[in-house]
Amino acid sequence: MKYGNYALYQGREYKAARDQDTILLYSKDPCDLQHGFFEKRPGVYTKSLSFQEVETVYAISYQAVYGGRTFPANETGMGSILLMHSGFEGLEEALEMGFKMVEPGVCEKEVQPDEVEQLIEVKRPIWGFTTA
After folding, report:
1. What is the distance between the alpha carbons of residues 91 and 49, in angstroms, rounded to a whole number?
2. Are strands 56-66 and 38-41 parallel, antiparallel or unpaired?
3. Residue 78: pLDDT above 80?
4. Please, what is the Cα angle at 15 between 60 and 39, to 5 degrees?
């Protein structure tokens, strides 16, 4: 699972960061040196572009379908997926599904990937872009 901000530039997806009025693209592909990238440190290449030079910028997050319901999801780093539920609507149902309360109105459940019916990558436009 990949997380964070990404930009499309010349049809390719790059990890992205914002630096005032520019977008910094990050790559681990040395071939990008031939496309105007500079080596920031060994194995990491960057390129600074104006907002007009990229096709779009978006944040990536995940939703998981579990027990027929959709929940925000994160990777735990240990091979499992952390499902989250917030708010009081549907809270009782989440608790019945084995979620544990971590604070009022917020509960979580750690599951194995094979327990998830579907994992959905969500791309949300950011920084004034309107498409992902």
Report:
1. 44
2. unpaired
3. yes
4. 170
